[in-house]
Task: structure prediction
Amino acid sequence: MKRRLFWIAACLSGPSPLFACPVCFQVEAGPVASGVRAAVVVLICVTSVVLGAVAMFLRRTRLLSSATPEVDPGGRPPGSTSGVALRS
Amino acid sequence: MIPYTIERRSDTGVTNVTMGIWLFLASEVMLFGALFSAYALLRVSAVNWPSGRDVLSVTRGAANTAILLVMTGFAWRARSAGDIAAGRRRLLVASILAMMFLVVKGVEYSSELGRGLVPSVSTFLAMYFTLTGLHALHVVCGLIANVWALTGVTRVGTEMTTGRLRALGLYWAFVDVIWMIIFVLMYLS
Result:
């Protein structure tokens, strides 16, 4: 715990340029910095949508698994891969 | 043999086919998302960005949009068709329309290359060829998947084919949405 606190304090007390974005640092008014910001916003939006969908699916899965019994009507536990012949 | 290709899993509520196609589409969203992010970076930071209306053929782009919309309609209806024969017919029409899309795209590419509009000319054209080329590659892959689903009925049966048609419907809807974004970004703005 002490070691963790030490590292957190060491990081926070470091010089501010260490935490600067390597692309935007000192070129805040330039078109490249604006472009990088726009690109980051787009990427964050796309990633948020995908992660949100995954989170919704996991929530749905949890609700389903809590609502259904552990063994399905076929006698197999959920996720079992053995003894299944489905191809007709 | 992959289990739960026909029956739904009790824990996920969907078949493994549906689960697989959604995971695949999520990875595809990330792939195109990275490219759209690169587009935003290049466009916003560019001092001079040409208008797509001046450089590209909006008519051909609009024609391809219409073709892809109708094609997605057929592919989507194939997944909800009552019987497998009707589903196959609709997928066949969707495949023909996808081929039409590729033909129009090929004509457009040859016209642009003939005018000397190659990717090395400008960042706009490099982005245009990257985005539309990758999208066309997805259309080609979808066509191959369509043929695979159409010819596989006798081997795997109707139930499994129905699952494949559902997955293909989702895939084509995704390809359509991506094209809409490309059309607006590259042709109209």
